[in-house]
């Protein structure tokens, strides 16, 4: 099948949620009076959880019929690394430049960062230099596990994913994750449950029984889950990021993703082009928006906000939102997209020419 636009639309929703979530703090810091964005909307940070669910679905999509093939394993790892690191390094170096020139402007309220560990996205106790990069460490771990699964038979994938999920649940309900090293906190964190649930949605979508799934009850369940999710998160926001949250959030987003994908496949809806376009540039927006919001906040502070009217806040919020998306579009078109296309072409050519297939490597 061709490109699944529902994935891009949901990526657009996810990055908009994260953007608005961080705009809450920036508005509170730089506006001189009442704020327009409500702190009750802290559930918007669940955009990252949606990204994890989408990643699981995408892993199933891009690895179909590619298991137990050394060439495809190498290609998979190359494309995942090429997707994460080069664009990330652009914003790492930009943030490092700001740190060297104006140290108080970078993560001043979150502590110092280990530069080299942040550069390579290695787990550590300190905050990442690019603050949002913590989620990329989880993504890399998910990719590493999935690459190991590619060595097995494809029909074993559901069982292996279920075993992974069961192991995580048993560990997290019986042990204290905080007692472990930074690396083990990534390996054992229940965030992987959201990735696994996204993978489960992908397996259902591509199964031979998918056409039998009745859409009305599925869509109703997805809608009810989306309505309940902000309430649940608000009730649990002060608690730990535990198994229950991951199962409810991951399950809700997996339901939504599966419902929208099936609706699109059966031609019952077309995702809005604007959301799909934002989804295309979501990685750049995600990496860059903290820097953009900081610049706009400083400009607004110099301008001199008027605390006596909310019209002032409307202008500030609109400026932040527009600047983050405008920069994201420009940088996606001029930096991310050409770079990804170049690396994809190189990777496909290199693995096509040099990597042996499973048949080639078998003893004769």
Characterise the protein shown here.
There is one protein chain. This protein has 364 residues and is mainly α. The chain has one domain. It is built from 14 helices and no strands. InterPro entries: Acyl_transf_3_dom (IPR002656), Acyltransferase_3 (IPR050879). Keywords: Acyltransferase, Membrane, Transferase, Transmembrane, Transmembrane helix. This is Acyltransferase. One of its GO terms (molecular function) is acyltransferase activity.
Summarize the model shown.
With 364 residues, this protein is an all-alpha fold. The protein has 14 helices and no strands. It is globular, with a radius of gyration of 21 Å.
Main beta sheet strand tally, sense and closure: none
Output the radius of gyration.
21 Å
Share of residues in strands: under 5%
Structural class comes to: mainly alpha
* Terminal residue distance: 36 Å
Q: Would you report the number of β strands?
A: 0
Please give the count of helices. Answer: 14
> Helical proportion?
over 70%
Compute the number of structural domains. Answer: 1
**Average pLDDT value?**
91
GO molecular function: acyltransferase activity
Protein name: Acyltransferase
Pfam family, one: Acyl_transf_3
Organism: Ectopseudomonas hydrolytica
């Amino acid at each position: 099948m061709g490109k699944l636009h529902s994935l891009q639309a949901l990526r657009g929703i996810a990055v908009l949620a994260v953007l608005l979530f961080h705009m809450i703090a920036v508005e509170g810091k730089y506006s001189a009076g009442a704020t327009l964005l409500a702190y009750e909307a802290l559930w918007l940070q669940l955009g990252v959880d949606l990204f994890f669910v989408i990643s699981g679905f995408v892993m199933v999509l891009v690895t179909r019929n590619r298991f137990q093939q050394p060439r495809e394993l190498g290609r998979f790892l190359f494309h995942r690394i090429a997707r994460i690191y080069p664009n990330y390094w652009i914003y790492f170096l930009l943030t490092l430049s700001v740190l060297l020139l104006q140290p108080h402007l970078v993560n001043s309220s979150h502590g110092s960062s280990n530069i080299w560990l942040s550069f390579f996205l290695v787990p550590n106790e300190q905050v990442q230099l690019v603050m949002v990069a913590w989620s990329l460490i989880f993504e890399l771990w998910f990719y590493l596990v999935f690459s190991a699964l590619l060595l097995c038979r494809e029909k074993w994938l559901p069982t292996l994913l279920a075993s992974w999920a069961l192991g995580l649940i048993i560990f997290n309900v019986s042990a204290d994750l905080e007692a472990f090293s930074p690396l083990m906190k990534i390996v054992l964190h229940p965030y992987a449950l959201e990735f696994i649930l996204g993978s489960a949605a992908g397996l259902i979508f591509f199964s031979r029984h998918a056409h039998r799934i009745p859409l009305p009850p599925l869509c109703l369940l997805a809608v009810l889950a989306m309505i309940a999710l902000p309430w649940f998160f608000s009730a649990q926001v002060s608690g730990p990021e535990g198994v229950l949250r991951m199962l409810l959030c991951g399950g809700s987003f997996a339901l939504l993703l599966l419902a929208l994908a099936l609706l699109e496949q059966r031609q019952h809806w077309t995702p809005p082009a604007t959301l799909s376009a934002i989804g295309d540039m979501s990685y750049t927006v995600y990496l860059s928006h903290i820097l953009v919001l900081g610049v706009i906040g400083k400009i607004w502070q110099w301008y001199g906000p008027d605390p006596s009217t909310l019209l002032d806040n409307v202008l500030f919020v609109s400026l932040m939102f527009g600047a983050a998306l405008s920069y994201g579009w420009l940088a996606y078109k001029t930096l991310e997209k050409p770079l990804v296309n170049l690396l994809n072409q190189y990777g496909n050519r290199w693995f096509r020419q040099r990597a042996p297939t499973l048949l080639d490597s078998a003893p004769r």
